[in-house]
Amino acid sequence: MRTDYHCHVLPKLDDGAKNTDVSVQMLETLHGQGIERVVATPHFYAHREKSVESFLDKRKQSYDKLMSCENPFSELVLGAEVAVEHGISELDGIEHLAISGTDLILLELPYTSYADWMSEEIYNIACEYHLTPVIAHIHRYSGYYSKSEMESILKTDAIFQVNNEAYGSFREKRFVKALMKSGVPVVFGSDSHNMSGRRPNFDMLAKKVSAECIDDSDALFEKHMKNTTIL
Questions:
Q1: Is 78 in contact with 56 (CB distance < 8 Å)?
Q2: pLDDT higher than threshold 70 for residue 66
Q3: pTM for the complete prediction?
């Protein structure tokens, strides 16, 4: 099932879709681009939220509002884009931010110089909660981290998520090609926020990446599915 692993489609929840009309337009566009399953990944910043529980309440309200509209997706899966911060692995309830029905959790690294504590937090999340980290838009960090720092991140036992937009940049495209050649697991996402500057873009991916690579990305979702669903 064609899957968008990273999408800010839930209305009025973060800097993504500003209302349900935009959300529906995004879903319609993704549907037209062949996407059958969308993972809704609103930003989660521990220092901004009262608790995981309050975030989940807001997410459910946004989800329910969107699902009350006519839209082309029955496979709209709930998740979050969790910012890696000091102590995030000790946050009460963090396991409930995993992508619903899977052991996958989407993590966003800081846009700062790399430090060992980042890898430690990711490792702790994986070990303590038996989750598989998915590092969001890994290609973006090649402009922030040194080559050796990137190598440290890429040694993490994780899945690496690539935004389709990377194929519009020569430097990022070269990085992604090398990443995929190395054999690490890679999944794709639009990271779309709206219908203007950050619109759904799986049409770009289809032109740049082989169907086999996209199939491999889709297959990882099923591989990491669990018997129970966390909402």
A1: no
A2: yes
A3: 0.95
